[in-house]
From TrEMBL:
InterPro entries: Cl-channel_core (IPR014743), ClC (IPR001807), ClC-type_chloride_channel (IPR050368)
Protein's recorded name: Chloride channel protein
Membrane topology: Multi-pass membrane protein
Alphabetically ordered keywords of this record: Chloride, Chloride channel, Ion channel, Ion transport, Membrane, Transmembrane, Transmembrane helix, Transport
Main location: membrane
Amino acid sequence: MWLETLRRRLAKPKTSVQLCLLGVSAGLIAAFLIILFRLTILFFQGLFLDNPDDFTTLPPLERVLMPIIAAFLIALFAAFTGFKHYRLGIPFVIHRIKSHYGQMPLYNTVNQFVGGALALISGFSVGREGPSVHMGATGASILADKLHLPYNAMRTLSGCGVAAGIAASFNTPLAAVIFVMEVVMREYKVHIFVPIMLAAVTGALATQFVFGNASELELITITTLSGWHYPFLTLFGIALGAVAYAFNQNLMLIIRTFKPLSMFPRLLLAGLIAGGIAYLVPQAMGSGMSAITLAVETPEDVQLLTTILIAKLLATLFAIGLGIPGGIIGPVIGLGVLMGTLMAFFAQFISPGVDIAGTYSVLGMAGLLAATLHAPLAALTTVMELTSSQEIIVPAMLVITTAYVTALQIFGNRSIFLQQLDFQGLSYQVSPATEALQKVGVMDEMDENFKLLYSDDKQQIESTLNAVDSQTPLIVYDAENGYRLAEYDLSLMSDQNIAINYISLQGISSQATLADAFDILKDKRSGAVYIYNLLDNQQIMGIMRWDQIRHILTIRNSLL
């Protein structure tokens, strides 16, 4: 009984204690999966690396063989589990949230866990946030599915899982919330915002409990920049916007070029390329966070940093483009830090004797993130959280806006996630009407005042219609016609003849939203659907008419 009450409460598009508690639960589940994922990577890397993600101490032959063997194992596991469509990471999660209320296939997630772990253990240039987001959304959707929650609540909880995944990956709960709203959900609603915020905090705290509160950017020293740097920062932002456009274009070029190849040769080619880069430039291996350490330790070695930048750029493009499971945010952060450190070499003439390499490295990260992902606000909050520095805010805003506008307006750049979705033919756009209706469960608006008659006898139907109130719908059922709505046809009635009009009813689950009812009725612009309870022998719970949905869209849309 309490579960039924919970489901009815969650069908409403409003903030509630129940939804907040479920958001915390989703955050805990996501954090558990991500902690397990990270511990798996650390355990296996600890068997052959002195420091996590530092592959420079390995012999050349091992550096070459590791990515090749890992690519083979990734392809073998995918083939063994029957996973043919290599759709993983943040783009796939966006598609599932927009088109399937965040329901995530289990095989898909298992492949993401195993494949992502193998890729990161072996030094592929991919980020851990891709698998983290994927697993976080899956954990939340499984929770919602087991409790048979309304789909609108499942959609919100999937967003909670994504936020917990980002927060657990980078220890940035605020940036995780903004990222979900700006990139994944692509909307700002308070009743969605609050549980997502709680899930992000939960994910961050759980991860801090296991791994501590340390951040890769803590090594970087932030220095206040004088106003003389701002014209140069504008040029820096323009350069970052151009690089972001080139990065996205080349990544999509690789994806399109190698699409005809089947999974096995494509992944093995990725392993061969990664092995070759690892042999020549071992510093380019890893998720991208190791590049931060290199930039901090050798900011004056322009030749080394340039070599690492080029090698890491190629390693990232081919790893992601050829289908290695992993995220793109981690490598983009590393590339941005390297670019910023290199730009500081030229900017030091503006402020001689002042150490500005750290500040520029952070600004490079922020600008490249904003322009590549089309997430300027998320990039800004990431910088603020990772550096805990007020001095970085104004120059970061200048670089981010310049890079973002340059990439968008001058080059026509689009989010790399949306470009990947377009290429794969996965939907991520819904109409404003559907988006509004997805937020309300049918249990919140259905008409529960109805009469159900299991008979097709016309006289019995007539007597029942006479007995019930004119505002009470009569649903009749017979084996041949199924469920139908019976009502008087006033246009054909006469003193001697009483005409009954029957309207066929299609059933939808009590988990459905108004958008599901809208999709069924929108072509006819009339009719009704009945709502049944999956858990009680498909008992009919209520009825939803087209007129009710139209009223919500035209009169009450502002409430949604």
